[in-house]
Each structure stands twice: as structure tokens, then as C-alpha cells.
Amino acid sequence: MKKYFYFLILAVFASSCQVSETIYLNEDGSGKIEVVELRDEHSYMQIAGANYSKEEKYVDTSYTFSDVVLKYNDTFLKFTKSEQELFSTYKEVNVHVKKSSYDKEFRTEFTQSFDKIEAIPDLYKTEDYADDLEHNYALTAEKHYYKVSYDFDGTVFNRIVKITDVAELEKASGRIDTLKIQGSRFNLVQTFTLSYNFSRKIKSVSNVNAKISPDKKSLSLQLLLTDCLQNPQGTALEVVLENAL
Length: 245
Description:
Layout: H1 4-14, E1 17-25, E2 31-39, H2 41-48, E3 58-64, H3 65-71, H4 73-76, H5 81-88, E4 94-100, E5 105-114, H6 126-135, E6 146-152, E7 156-163, H7 166-183, E8 191-198, E9 202-205, E10 211-212, E11 218-224, H8 225-230, E12 237-241
Parallel strand pairs: 1-8
Antiparallel strand pairs: 1-2, 2-5, 3-4, 4-5, 6-7, 7-12, 8-11, 9-12, 10-11
Helix pairs in contact: 1-7, 3-6
């Protein structure tokens, strides 16, 4: 998907998206991450109107990023060494895309198992990089205006968000303001949810709106997706765990 973040912004209003990011983090720092982007059908029906029942689309495909590198290896070898190294960080990412107007399910999933959480690439750029390899594009994902990464020192977990292009952020924010006005007459579902699960109890969370589970080993934080796109750093999070026994 060319310029994926831009189309994600449009999709927030054209499709009314729900995005969730779930992490399971083990005591030794290994674990699994899953990012899901889901079209909310009730919201989309409001926007599409009579065209909702006329929609005809069916895609159901799964791939691992390493398969993309192998399939388009001639293109991969044309990139610089640093660009090849960047692509290589995505090799273990699994992608499942289902877009079915018959089942009324439009869903994209990115999953990865990891030995150390620092190894997780910015999953939100996965489809851009796959497109770059398939079509021999320049690294379009680098035009995105923020980057997501993680770290864990055994006690403190961080979701880190860095602004990489202030000018593009301002442009995106302006587009979102316009789209907010256009979409204000609809009752749209536009959520971004972080769900993190740990092997030890949570001692503190940097965002006071995070809900901690009764056993104190997991948390959930739901935000408005448009707010997250306009202020990506608002999704940064620090979680401090209790000391191991």
C-alpha cells in the first residue's frame, strides 16, 4: 500500500478503523506482539450508505516478510546495505490480510514472536516496505512522521514514539482536522487500544487512564485514533513492574 500512513488517515474516516496493539512479555524478555487494524462495519455502513450492499471485494492472504524478500530478491539486492539491514529487521513479521465484502470483514494483522522486545521493528510500516520490494520503490515508509519502538530492562517497559518529520506531522494534523469536520455528522468508531500483558505485577503506569487488571499483570489503554495520529507521542508509555522475588 503506497504511502500507507496517509491512507491510514483517510481510512479512519472512510472506513472507521479500530486499531489494537497487544504484547505478551515473558520474564526473560521474550514474547509476542500482535497489531490488528479492523474496519468497524456499523460505522462504515453509515458512510457508504446504499453502496455498502453493492461492495464487491475479496482478498484473503497471508505471508511472512522473509517470503517477500526471497520472492523479490533481485530488487532487495539493489538497495543499499543499510536499507537491506532495515528490511531484514522485518523478516520474522507475519501478515494476514482479509478484505471480504461478503463476510463483512476487513482486517489486517501483523504478528511477531521475539527473543528481545528491542528486536520488534515498526510494524505499522510493514506493508509499505513489502510494497517497496515488490515494486522497486524508494523507501516510502521513511516519509512517515513518527517511529515506534520498545525496550525492556527487566523491570521497566517502554513504548517509545519519536517524531521523525515535524513538517509532515503538521500536514497530517491539518488533513485530520478537515476530515474531522467532514465526519462530524457520523457516529464513527475510531479507537486505538494498547493491551500489554506481563509475567509480574505492575507497579506503576505513566498514563493515568490505563486500566490495570485485577491480578495487576496486564493493562489496557484505549485512545481516540485521530488523537493518536495528530499526537503520536501521546501513545508513548512507561510501565514499571514489581521486583522479581
